[in-house]
Write the structure tokens for this entry.
Amino acid sequence: MTTTASTPDKSPGPEPTDEEYGILRASGALWAGCSVLITDRHGQVLVQHVDYLDTCLLPGGAVDKGESPAQAAARELQEELGVALTVDRGLAVDWVSVGSVGAPASMRFPGELLHVFDGGTWSDEQIAAIRLPEREITSIEFVEPAGLPGLLAARDARRALSALRARVNAGGAVLLEDGRPIAPSVLDTVGILRTPQARHHYPFHAAPVPEHLPVRQSWVWAFAPDGRVLVLLDPDTGAACLPGGTPETRGHGDPEATPRREAAEEAAAELADVVCVGYLSDPEEPSARVRHVATLTRLGAPPVDPATGRTHIRVLATPEQALELFDRGPSAGDQLAAVHRARAALGLPAAQPQPVTELGDPVVWDLVTE
């Protein structure tokens, strides 16, 4: 009796020899490559200007024979930036198709599996320690995520943004095809980080607003019982923000009026336990941008915001994820500390790292806390 085996490209037939099977698999082999996503403390991405392309690249390169992708990434960081770093967290694996690269026929490019690793957030000291080689890398710069498509090749920019969203989303490494997720998250479908973030780079004061400062803006960190907060995503621009807006005359003297009204209008959200945790001060135009903390009690059907005519996409994110989405200013840590103190005072837990969750249907939350 003759035994048969199925191979990827053949109908059942006589079992191939080891040599035949090796030839078959080699005929479908792909190149292997790696890149490393590195950000500074403001959320900007490190890109390299090179002497052989008109576009920029993330650190990385080809995986050499006998190397693992992680070993190759560590080697490339040493060669290109003069930095010794263990790379042990993957963000994405991208299948790069033959037709997406535009490689010359003489190169016989068979396609590539490119691994994107998380290089972490680098301190000013780590950045200052970078040493470039004499050739190949002419300079580096840190750029806003929204600026990547203007500096990188289109496929590389898609891949970098997909990997950056995967890092924020905390859902593990994602699978890409030509830079596009095969199972997009809500951050991918909305296109978060594709447009410049609104900057709120003002000093934060964990104190009541002085009487002489007019209130220009009032936002609220609205907490669900699991310690995550409500974030609004603009479906047209991918911009993220907390519920809130500009105080109206009719709410004068009532600091809770604006966050309650704006949360209802923008997100159909009802709040309880609204407390002020501080404010951002604008030195150029003396005014205060107030920050509140509250608990979410109910979420209705997605409303049309009367101020913009848009229906925001509502998501729950950890406070840390929220800041990644809309503000990485120098005072972000001070604001986050004040928010967590208020959260603890309300008896709410610290949120565990988890993927951002879209909220479509109405929700009623149980306010009983442990």
